[in-house]
Structures are given as structure tokens and as C-alpha cells.
Amino acid sequence: MDQVTTEIDAVVAALSTLAVTYGMAVLGAIAILIGGWLIAGWLEKGVDRSLGRVSHMDPTLRPFIASLVRYGILILTVIIVLGQFGVQTASIIAILGAAGLAIGLALQGTLSNVAAGVMIILFRPFKLGDFIEVAGEMGTVKDISLNTIELASLSNTQIIVPNSQVWGNVIENYSVYPTRRAEWTFGVGYGANLKQAEEVILNTILADERSKREPEPFIQVNNLNDSSVDFLVRVWVDAAVFFQYQADMKRRVKEALDAEGVPIPFPTRTLHIEKNEDTAIAAQ
């Protein structure tokens, strides 16, 4: 019985020693954890609200930045708590750095897409609804996320492009400016009256109400080909009707030239056949 009592007293003494040694540290750690958790949540909401008041801030980026702030505070809180118990925080930071490097190498492609997505959202080279061409793909922007963008092609197929390919390539945005310049090359025969042909082309284009009068349409002889005299024509038009307008004008100019009897050439080749004298004598 005395032995049991002695062992109990030893356990109580050990617990008392631990309580005296680490009690305040444990209470402090609990307080730090609670405080860090509350501060992290408060800062996350505050950052999200603040970013919401920033003009042109993409809604995709707001929760991402707010989450980074929250988890950064939580990681800092855990490091401080471990320091309460005498753990070397420098070693922890080194381990976290090494782990971050390993994860970064393993997820290099994904992280590059995320980084590019952040740049796209921040600098906004295009927005939803814009018609763009990038990385060899063309379509209307339907969605912008941290990893990819979604395009709807002219044939209404879905195109998913990784953000690293978007940010790392030339982006051609057809929707930024309200007007675009249409350009064609129309060829007429060498026997055609060039003044007449020029008037027919220009009058046909100006007859369409979509053609802008300012800047003034441009037309001039641009090239003398093997079988045609080429006119270069440039006209400004609203970007919204650009593709249909360009197709319509090709057809209408062709019909107008035909109606006015202006010849439109096609490639021809003239062959000169010479008789061989020896062959001719033998034939006689």
C-alpha cells in the first residue's frame, strides 16, 4: 500500500512540475492559437472587402488573395506557438522553405499557370466577351480562372488554353477598339479601264451604310501581277460587324465588276510551240 501511495505521489509531483514548467506556456499557446485564428479570419474578410472596393478588381482574384493572407497568418501563428515550447523556429522556417521548394518543383506547370492567371487578372489584357486570338487559338472569352481561360470558337466549340500559354504569347484582342480596318485586294485584267474599275469598287463600298466615311476609304493600284492589276482597298468599319462586312464586300464588288463589264482575270499560260527542222524534213 505504501508503495502505491509513493508512486501516486511521484506522478502528482511530476505533473505538478510539468504544470509549473509548461503551464503558462500551454496557456499562452492556446491564447496565441485562438488569437491567431481570429485575426486570420478578420484579416481575410477585411482584405476581401477592401479589394471589392478596388475598381477593375476581378472577382476571381479577391478570394485568392484573401486566402493567402489568412493562411500566412495561420502559419505564422503555428511557428510562434512552437517557439513557446523552445522549438527552434529557424529550423522550422528552413524545413518549410525546403518543402515549399519541393512542392514548387513538383507543381511547376500548375504554379506557372496560377502565376500567369494572377497576371492576366491584374493587368486585364482582355475581359469576358472579348474576341481574341492567342496561342494559335481564336474565340470569344467565356471564362477566366487562375489556371486556364475558356474560349468559344467561331464554330461554337469549347477551347481551354492554359494561362502560361496565354501570358507567354502575343495576345490579339479584336474587341478593344470600337472600329477595325477591313482590307482587300481586287484584281482586274490588263485590258480593263483602271479609272472605271476604281470607281466601281469605291462606289460599291460606299453604298454600304456600314462603311465609315471617316477616315476616308483608301484605294490604289498596289501591284502588277502576271495576269492582273491589283487594287488595294482599305475601309474602316464597326468591329461588331467586321467579319460579315468583309465577306459581303467581296461578293458585292465581284458582282459590280461583272455588271460593269470589268474583266476579272484568272491565271493563264501561253505556250509557244516551235517545230524542229530535222523532224520536219524527216516527215517530208
Could you explain how this protein is built, in words?
With 284 residues, this protein is of the alpha+beta class. It has three domains: 2-106, Helix Hairpins; 125-173, SH3 type barrels (Roll), CATH 2.30.30; 179-259, Alpha-Beta Plaits (2-Layer Sandwich), CATH 3.30.70.100. The protein is 54% helix and 18% strand. Strands 4-3-2-1-5 form a five-stranded antiparallel beta sheet. A three-stranded antiparallel beta sheet has the order 6-8-7, covered by helices on one side. Helix 1 runs antiparallel to helix 2 (61-84) and helix 6 crosses helix 7 (242-259). The radius of gyration is 38 Å and the shape is elongated. The protein starts with a helix and ends with a helix. It is a multi-pass membrane protein. It comes from Tistrella mobilis.
Summarize the structure.
Helices cover 54% and strands 18% of the residues. By secondary structure, the chain is of the alpha+beta class.
How many distinct domains?
3
CATH class (first level) name of the largest domain: Mainly Alpha
Query: Measured on Cα atoms, how large is the radius of gyration?
Result: 38 Å
List the uncertain runs: none
Helix content: 40-55%
How much of the sequence is in beta strands? 15-25%
The CATH level-2 architecture of the largest domain is identified as Orthogonal Bundle
Widest beta sheet: strand line-up? 4-3-2-1-5
Number of strands: 8
InterPro entries: LSM_dom_sf, MS_channel_1st, MS_channel_C, MSC_TM_helix, MscS_archaea/bacteria_type, MscS_beta-dom_sf, MscS_channel_2nd, MscS_channel_C_sf
Protein name: Small-conductance mechanosensitive channel
Subunit structure: Homoheptamer.
Family: Belongs to the MscS (TC 1.A.23) family.
